[in-house]
Amino acid sequence: MSFLLSLRASVPAVRPLSRAYSPHRPQLLTYRNVGRSVPVRGLSPALAYFQLKEILAESKVRETVRFQEWFESKPDKRRRKRKEADWRKYLEHVKQQVVLAQDLAWREKVDKQNYIDI
Fold it and tell me: Would the CA dihedral through 67, 73, 76, 79 be positive or negative?
């Protein structure tokens, strides 16, 4: 188990630019790495498994399968859909606030440059 933890710690974490849901897009489109497949060549099987696990989590495959395993009543489905919609709205709001903060920081930087000689 400690081997897997040390292996996971040695792999640099790649964070998406957006925390919102985005379908999986592999970085390199080659014949070996397309869709939800992960090549094991040159990698340890444990590392390939972790990469596959991240891809499945990103594309929400396990959640979809879990929801399809049993019947979901209409009120439960409405509640789940409403939560998902609220989460999307919240992420959009956060995204707008980040854009505003970055714009404010950029404007402050420009203002400092403009008034540096005064």
Answer: positive
Tens digit of each residue's pLDDT (9 = 90 or more) over 21-44: 555 555 554 445 556 777 777 768
Q: How far apart are CA 107 and CA 100, in angstroms?
A: 10
* pTM score: 0.43
Task: Please check whether residue 20 is in contact with residue 88, taking contact to mean a CB–CB distance below 8 angstroms.
Answer: yes
Please compute, for residue 49, the number of CA atoms within 13 A of its CA located in the half-sphere on the CB side: 6
Greater confidence (94 vs 25) lies with 94
User: What DSSP string runs through 11-78?
Assistant: SPP---S-SS------SS--SSS-TT----TTS-HHHHHHHHHHHHHHTTHHHHHHHHSS---HHHHH
